[in-house]
Design goal:
Layout (H helix, E strand, L loop, with lengths): L8 E2 L16 E9 L6 E9 L5 E10 L2 H7 L9 E2 L4 E8 L11 E4 L8 H4 L9 H6 L11 E2 L5 E2 L12 E5 L3 E3 L6 H4 L5 H12 L7 E5 L3 H12 L4 E6 L2 H10 L3 E4 L5 H9 L5 E4 L4 H9 L6 E4 L13 H5 L3 E4 L7 H13 L9 E5 L4 H9 L5 E5 L4
Parallel strand pairs: 1-3, 12-13, 12-15, 13-14, 15-16, 16-17, 18-19
Antiparallel strand pairs: 2-3, 2-5, 3-8, 4-6, 4-10, 4-19, 6-7, 7-11, 8-9
Helix pairs in contact: 5-6
Length: 397
């Protein structure tokens, strides 16, 4: 894995080198963190970003969360074209909108989430996180409609963007109307940034996917931001037993403050036996947020017959999990979940309201970093477990 690297800043050269496309689209000078080679680092550059088309929204970024998925794309675990501007947990203020945009207007505060085509069977069935074009629209680096790239660099070369429909490791983000969610202005945007992916995925798995009933027993494997969100959601819906499993004592201590009733230190305990002992063999749901095949096996083996295991963590392509067929035959279920089965415009306002009521304190897991220049440090701290959810403050309103 690429270690901490010195941030390289490339000066703007747009006044002396403008070689844009023949369409002569109006563009805006922006600051962005660009990945130019597999493994990184993030390089700060001045780019030109297209102004919004008729269905697009320009957002001035206030803050953006750093997510494991950004690292997975940077390392090539998720095929993503280079060079590219990553970032997919943006929050900011609407600067301008296209002619057909009606749900937001300049000055609105918004958070951004994943994007989708809107026309396939799953999108039309209110399951947009399973869009038939999910990979192309979120990881393809270009507009799904026509394949165009939104950025150009100082010498006029195209730079990929549209990452999760936002590419928010930048001073400004170009989104579609469908993947921006309006939020109350009185709430601090810096604390809302993780909503669009980490919080939505972990909370949505509990509330939307598993529909965890009151009084249930839930075990969450991995106490990163997704796992912490599952813990908070389990507590919010009234699960009577919420078990946090992790290797880091500091994360287990935080998990207790966020709603975990029990913790299991995977560095020195037999996880399966510990979970079974805590629940008396009555675990209802297990949630694996790690994407580690051994952890998924533990999550399955912790369940009694008819229990349900939920996989949230992404794994490198080709990862295989061996599960005893008898485990499945005895009524157990394992299922994968993308983005918490959430329709962001409907689900995120519910989480915001819980947060306002003090029932979903996701801000407690955030560590703040000032400026895009701190992205490499934020990534390093997250990779090494020193922070749960890094959020980079870009330009607070």
């Amino acid at each position: 894995m690429f270690g901490l690297a010195k941030v390289v800043v490339r000066p703007s050269a747009f006044q002396r080198a403008r070689s844009f496309s023949s369409t002569k689209l109006v563009q805006q000078d922006v600051k962005a963190a660009v990945i130019r080679e597999k493994g990184g680092p993030y390089i700060i550059e001045r780019l030109q970003l297209d102004e919004p088309r008729e269905d697009e929204v320009m957002v001035k970024i206030a803050a953006v969360g750093y997510c494991h998925t950004d690292t997975a794309s940077l390392l090539g675990y998720i095929p993503t074209p280079l060079p590219i501007v990553l970032g997919h947990e943006g929050a900011g203020v609407v600067q301008s909108v296209g002619a057909k945009v009606t749900s937001v207007q300049p000055g609105d505060h918004v958070v951004m989430s994943y994007t989708f085509c809107g026309g396939c069977k799953n999108c039309l069935s209110s399951r947009p996180s399973y869009c038939s074009h999910h990979r192309a629209s979120n990881f393809g680096g270009k507009r799904l409609a026509d394949g165009s790239l939104p950025f150009k660099d100082a010498i006029g070369q195209a730079v990929h963007g549209c990452y999760f429909g936002q590419s928010s490791f930048a001073s400004h983000s170009l989104c579609r109307e469908t993947n921006v969610v309006k939020v109350p202005r009185e709430l601090p945007l810096q604390s809302l940034a993780p909503l669009g992916c980490s919080v939505q995925t972990g909370a949505g798995a509990v509330i939307n996917s598993l529909k965890v009933p009151f009084g249930s027993a839930v075990a969450v494997f991995g106490c990163g931001p997704v796992g912490m969100s599952s813990i908070m959601a389990s507590a919010a819906v009234g699960a009577s037993t919420v078990i946090a499993v992790d290797l880091h004592r500091s994360r287990l201590d935080l998990a207790r403050t966020l709603g975990a009733t029990h913790v299991v230190d995977a560095s020195n305990e037999n996880v399966v036996e510990a979970v079974r002992q805590i629940t008396g063999g009555g675990l209802d749901f297990s949630i694996d947020t790690t994407g580690n095949v051994k952890v998924l096996t533990q999550a399955m083996e912790s369940l009694p017959p008819t229990g349900v295991a939920c996989l949230l963590g992404g794994s490198p392509p080709g990862s295989k999990s061996e599960i005893d067929m008898l485990t499945i035959l005895l009524g157990r279920t394992v299922r994968g979940v993308i983005q918490g089965d959430s329709v962001s415009k409907l689900f995120l306002p519910r989480i915001v309201e819980l947060h306002r009521q003090g029932k979903f304190p996701f801000d407690k897991m955030i560590t703040y970093y000032d400026g895009l220049e701190q992205l490499n440090q934020a990534r390093k701290d997250a990779d090494e477990g020193r922070t749960v959810k890094p959020v980079i403050r870009v330009a607070l309103p």
